[in-house]
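Morning. Coffee machine broken again, so started the prediction first thing and wrote up yesterday's gels while waiting. Chain of 319 residues, entered below exactly as on the submission form.
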Amino acid sequence: MTHAGLWAAFAACVLGLLALDLGVVNRRAHRSSVREAAWWTAAWVAVAAAFGTGIAVMLGGAAALEFATAYVVEGTLSVDNLFVFLLIFAFFRVPAALQHRVLFWGIFGALALRGAVIGAGAVLVEHFAWVTYVFGGFLLVMGIRLAGRRGDESFDPARNPVLRLLRRAMPVTDAFAGPRFFVRERGTDGVVRRAATPLFVVLVLLETTDLVFAVDSIPAVFGVTRNPFLIYTSNVFAILGLRSVFFLLAGVMGRFHYLRYGLAVVLAFVGAKMLVAAAWDVPTVVSLAVIVLVLGTAVAASLAFPPRAADHAVARHVP
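Came back before lunch.
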């Protein structure tokens, strides 16, 4: 199959999966249970594995291994997004039945935004070799910062500049209107205007948050492979499965308190790998083994040594 044929097959696969998801399986807004989320998570992983098998047939085992490593890196680094997503949903009090819908439509924006970031990164790496060292140093610094970040640091949606700009640009209703992003309402002057609902505000915040996190995760994937096709497809499959992982882990995220350190080590490892690439090319299979070992250790340590109640600040109710 030609290079253009691979892209066409991938696009058809993703569009078919999204149409099946929105048009058949999740046609009606509903609250996802943990069991349903677990099945969907397994299904998306299976789809990614099947696609990786197709890459092995078409492009060879080395390309398939790079895809698998990039998928694991992108998927694990995207877990950090979920904590911010939870805060955004809690801040706007998004009904559980609408969360799946807004996450679904967030995928379309993420596909375009990440595609643009990956395309720009690929051009830079191809024409300016020194950018690799910039990416490596950036990831190393981000890993150190993530490891040293205090656990009580939080994201405040009310201070988000995108939210302030959006509210200045268009009227926003006070209440949700079911699954709709826009409604028509009569203003105080009697004129009927098109207004955004809080669900659209949440969608915009999710998109901008995903773009910010992509600045961290996409350079990390460039440390695994330089093939734009493998980078983009691994990103897309990680994003597709992120919604199910969100509902699966939403109630138990607090138990994985050491995961942040695991993610920090992964970022630092990939950054160091890019910095020493000229002198020592770390094999992809070694990278995959190290990443899986680090993340597995972080999850196991979190389960073996649960957080103590004294380690958490006292919760205060704000009316």
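The two ends are 61 Å apart (CA to CA). Going to sketch it on the whiteboard this afternoon.
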